[in-house]
Amino acid sequence: MRLKDKVAIVTGGARGIGEAIATLFAKEGARVILIDLLPEGQDVADRIIADGGIAEYHCVSVTDKSTIATLFENVHKTYGKIDILINNAGITRDRTLEKMSLEEWDAVIDVNLKGVFICTQAVAPYMKANNYGRIVSAASNVGLRGNFGQTNYAATKAGVIAMSKTWTMELGKYGITANAVAPGFTLTDMVADIPTAHLDAIKASIPLKTAAAPIDIAYGYLYLASDEARFVSGICLTIDGGTAR
Fold first, then answer.
1. Residue 118 burial (10 A CB sphere; 0-12, 13-18, 19+)
2. What is the percent of the chain with per-residue pLDDT over 70, rounded to a whole number?
3. What is the pLDDT of residue 23?
4. What sign for the dihedral angle of Cα 220, 180, 56, 214?
5. Looking at the domain assignment, is residue 84 inside a domain?
6. Any idea where the Ketoreductase domain is (predicted)?
7. Is residue 2 part of a domain?
8. Torsion on CA atoms 17, 18, 20, 22, rounded to nearest 10
9. Nearby residues of 96 by Cβ (< 8 Å), 6 or more positions away
């Protein structure tokens, strides 16, 4: 197993890509701590446990600095280490530039950017003390090329890439890698309401002529979180079926 006895925190682990990451990591031997505001996170943890894995769910917002700090401290006390942090939690509030409200801007910045900062800042001391760590954060190909109606989302995802490169410089001497994953169009609940005709057009625009499933993205996270990627740091792994950028 590629993550045997590793302790992995996965934010946004209740559904979609986060659920796929948590489930895959558990199958690969990790002890998984799921963080999400959605109660379905408990269902994910229960399924992992039923399949013989180790998991626990915590209903916590990644924007709640004090609660995150306490949770990470408790995880460290329980398991003696934190090996992996997957910063996957994210939201969208799409609107064109001139129509986007400050509340829509702030909401996306708070979760997608500040939440990543809060969780990584909280985990860094534990990883440094252990001289080992894997930090993998959710970017997007939108952060590389932009997207109509997503000024806020694109800004956060570009920011995640830049933060990951910075953490590589700051934390690398402690055996900690920091990378980002930039998924392309992925079939999650977030896109479930897209009309069939529009969905078909999106698939046609992808060179592989299909959309990603959450597990396709999860395997990228698995590689970057594993010891196989010990010399991979500061990159943004794009998993988008070859979409033009």
1. buried
2. 99
3. 98
4. negative
5. yes
6. 6-184
7. no
8. 160
9. 148, 149, 151
**Residue 99 burial class via C-beta count within 10 angstroms: exposed 0-12, middle 13-18, buried 19 and up:** exposed
pLDDT band for position 245 (cuts 50, 70, 90): low
Question: Which amino acid, residue 229?
Answer: A
CA dihedral sign of residues 192, 193, 194, 196: positive
Domain holding 157, by residue range, is 7-239
Hey, what are 8's tokens? 């992995």
1 within a domain of the structure (yes/no): no
* Residue type present at position 192: A
In this predicted model, what pLDDT tens digit does every residue of 100-128 receive, in sequence order? 999 999 999 999 999 999 999 999 999 99
Rounded CA separation 118/62 (Å): 7
Apex CA 224: angle with CA 51 and CA 170, to 5°? Answer: 130
- Helix axis angle, 214-225 to 16-27, nearest 10°: 50
**Does residue 244 have a pLDDT over 70?**
no
Residues 6+ positions from 99 with CB-CB distance below 8 Å: none
Catalytic residue positions, numbered? 153
CATH label of the domain that carries residue 23 = 3.40.50.720
Q: Which of 36-50, 75-89, 104-118, 199-213 is least confident?
A: 199-213
